[in-house]
Model the fold of this input.
Amino acid sequence: MLKQFEKHFTDLGYQAPTAIQTAVYDAMVGDKNVLGLAPTGSGKTVAFTLPALANLLPGDGTQLIVLEPSQELAIQTSRVMRDWGKLLDLQVVALTGGANVKRQTERLKKRPEIVVGTPGRVLNLVNDRKLKLHLVSMLIVDEADDLLTGDTLDTVREIAQATPADVQLGFFSATDTPILHELDKWFGQDVERVDVRDQDNTQGEVRHGLLQVGMNKRDQMLKRLLAMPNFRALVFFKQSSTLRKTATRFYHDHVSAAGLTSDLRQVQREKALQDFRQGRIRLLLTTDVAARGLDIPKLPAVINYDLPDKVNEYVHRVGRTGRMGEPGQVISLGDDHDLRDLKRLLKDTDYDLVPLYFSGRTLTTERPTAATVKANETAKAERTATTSAAGQTSVTAAVPKSGAKVSVKAAAKAETPNPSKKKKHKNRHTKNKGMRKKWRDHDAQN
Done:
């Protein structure tokens, strides 16, 4: 590690490099192509940032391209790299879809050494000759299991082909997929595989719970979970349409929640994410596309409003909590059939799925008994009675003391208001009608 980095590494509170940071550093500094596999939250961004920046020359044009699957992750990565890059006088520019293209083009004219962006926007600027890749010495594909699928695979390959033939390649992912075993075939270079998923110990204790809730009652359950003190959660949906319905309902019910979807403007997405990180909202409703790879420090819980269909989807969702040694809770909502399917999906993994129950404003693994239910109902009745008593006290306080003289008629009127007596609304035409009659009588006399 460079001396400039060592002090900053300590200042940030890091005690020692993580397994992935140690494993890939020498290989990347030595110009080798690397595939790094490590759990979510294990410091992969810093793992490729430190060796990549060590090989760059300040003022020598764009030399490093980093591709990310979403706007949020591109912005997040650019901030991390900018924090380290300023120690070496290196500039970083983020190129994401949904942002102002002209503004991004103006920033490219300053010839930044590092470009972090989404594949679509990067390729568009390359084709428009606004971004030149002839000096690029390294291309990093983050979240490779996601980017190297479907049409995005072709986009990434086009970007790689636009770089020099000897460009150094770096691929990083939390989950393994078949294409990651065929990188030499798709990119024409040998890639060294570094897998530390079994060696990494950065994950905190994360509990995986199953909460049986029907589809029509899931919004209500989210509200009930908010009754728990200091509860915050990232809530995953399959469909943006379902997410929008829940977000709209919560907005009208004044629930502390916001939506984060790919169809929102970048400013709206950044605000929702910032509000959630700073605790101004307690539920962030999102989809797999929008929230992949997000780093939200000390996130207490992840909720699966809709259950995932693939193991990798579950891995990336639950990886948002329990990061860097912090504890976490995963709550999967579904009916009996849904939860059986999830157990079947994850049967070959190490996740221990435990039934959860919501009782007395807390989550518990013990099935509530009749006595527990009765106790909760009694406590609820007492809270209601206390609230009613407080309201009765405020009404009584408005009644005069015994020494004051109050007429019987006034007292009866105060105790039994007459609901049938309606306020008389003055007809706005009454005055005009009276004036017309006055003038008619005046004419008759004349």
About this structure: DSSP finds 18 helices and 15 strands in the chain. The radius of gyration is 31 Å.
